[in-house]
Amino acid sequence: MNELFEAIKGKKFAVFGRAGIDLFCDEVGVKSENSQIFRSDLGGSSANICAGLVKLGSQASLITSVSDDAIGRFALNRLKDYGVDTKYVKTISGECRTSLAIYESTLDNFQNVIYRNNAADFQVEIADVDLVHYNNYSAIITAGTVFASEPSRSSTFHAIENARQARIPVIF
Fold this sequence. Notes:
alpha/beta, UDP-N-acetylmuramoyl-L-alanine:D-glutamate ligase, four-stranded mixed β-sheet, 5 helices, 28% helix, 26% strand
């Protein structure tokens, strides 16, 4: 356990998983179906982990794929705005899309709707994770969604093995 704590003190993380866009009702307490104004920001658990790490003074690189469209570019721009290293974010064309989530700030019957059909982040391949210089990081972090579909699942298991060979901790 001491090894993990020492690694975390290095404050440099490679994070595997999803970047997306969140839309949320601008009016507090209003249901999505009744809202007329929505705000947007970076979404995706792994992208938000990266943004939080950077806000706390760490360095974070995200390893994912985004779609080659306005939503993918929005997510990429917001990652950069937050100071997240995007050199391992792959832009892909075709039918895959960057995820979209719609949130509301109600206490009763809260709804969170996530659109993830043909999710771009599931297109991370073994060749993508082999580009990562694992020895440059204190630890790798992964969220659970990377294991939901191929090729992301196999690629992330491969990344975990790469991290083990580099003797850096894996945080899940």
